[in-house]
Amino acid sequence: MREPVLEIKNFHVDYGLGADAVQAVRDVTLTLHRGEVLGLAGESGSGKSTLAYGVTRLLPPPGVISGGSVVYHSPGGSYDVMTLTDAELRKFRWAETSIVFQGAMNSLNPVHKISTQMLDVIKAHEPDLSPQARTARAAEMLKLVGISADRMDAYPHQLSGGMRQRVMIGMALVLQPQIVIMDEPTTALDVVMQRQILAQLVELRERLGFSVLFITHDLSLLVEFSDRIAIMYGGRIVEEARSSDLYKDSLHPYSEGLLKSFPALRGPRRELSGIPGSPPDLRGMPTGCSFHPRCPHAFDRCSTDIPLLATPSSRNDPTRSVACWLPGRTPVA
Ligand SMILES: Nc1ncnc2c1ncn2[C@@H]1O[C@H](COP(=O)(O)OP(=O)(O)O)[C@@H](O)[C@H]1O
Ligand SMILES: [Mg+2]
Predict the structure, then answer these.
(1) I want to staple 133 with a disulfide (CB 3.0 to 4.6 A). Which of 28, 43, 129, 193 is the partner?
(2) Distant-in-sequence, close-in-space partners of 255: CB < 8 Å, separation ≥ 6
(3) Which GO terms label this protein's molecular function in UniProt (predicted)?
(4) Domain boundary at 176, 193, 221, which?
(5) Which residue has the least CA distance to atom 25 on ligand 1?
(6) Number of domain units in the chain
(7) What is the CA(215)–ligand 2 centre distance, in A?
């Protein structure tokens, strides 16, 4: 296994305080390794964006981080992102980690040329770079994402949606960050474009060596492009595995349901059936395993005890973990 670059441990996020607080992220422990593409999948409302906003400390109120640590291992040393000052955070966010959030392609400023917007980012974070070096960096980055030099002076409205999206990836990479987080970087429905972006990121990652956390509700995309996948349900990670293992041999009934909800682009065909019922309402979270009301295999214990994520007794493999009470899926006692 490669060395860790971001270690999220026992991370909790609530919306609101006190008795009315909604528990959106619960006890998430997740590690991103250097140079890997880690996919995070789960239905809408499972807490994926809340986790991404939380670990980068961009959570808007009433979001509150109510526990956990996020250790970032930089070439210069390791530190807990939760303890950074505002000034340190600003540097961490662009230079070390860059984030493209849901709907980001609409966040390009319509009145400025894309070259200007890119140069502004470089100028703000690397003020010592000469104007020539900045222009060269911007041009190089746009070329890398497939935008030719003659389009550099275009305004956002002069570009197609796909090109604007590539500009956003270029912006995210222009400071050569260690970590790139993409949270459903196109609209929820536009999976074709997400696929293009993910393919491009995987290719760039090989050349530039950054790590990617790619968030989507579409598991089939991740099966195809990511090294590992974490599945989120009701604010918790319920399964984590190498993509190929998850696809061939998923252990959590929810992962199984998600795999059957999206047509796979490669590999053997599966019957599409989806998951009956709907995601839990955080205000009235089911007791025990929050998936139990929708689970075809649930038994008594599932409605009373919360299963913790751990390596299951039936798979002697530390790269696999699952949170489920079914036989063989509980940890070795
Ligand atoms: N500002 C907010 N106030 C209260 N609840 C919120 C807020 N934002 C998100 N939530 C709740 O947190 C849960 C997780 O949301 P989110 O992280 O956006 O999920 P995902 O990205 O997986 O779709 C949802 O149930 C949502 O209703
Ligand atoms: Mg989201």
Answers:
(1) 129
(2) 219, 231, 238, 239, 246
(3) ATP binding; ATP hydrolysis activity
(4) 176
(5) 45
(6) 2
(7) 8
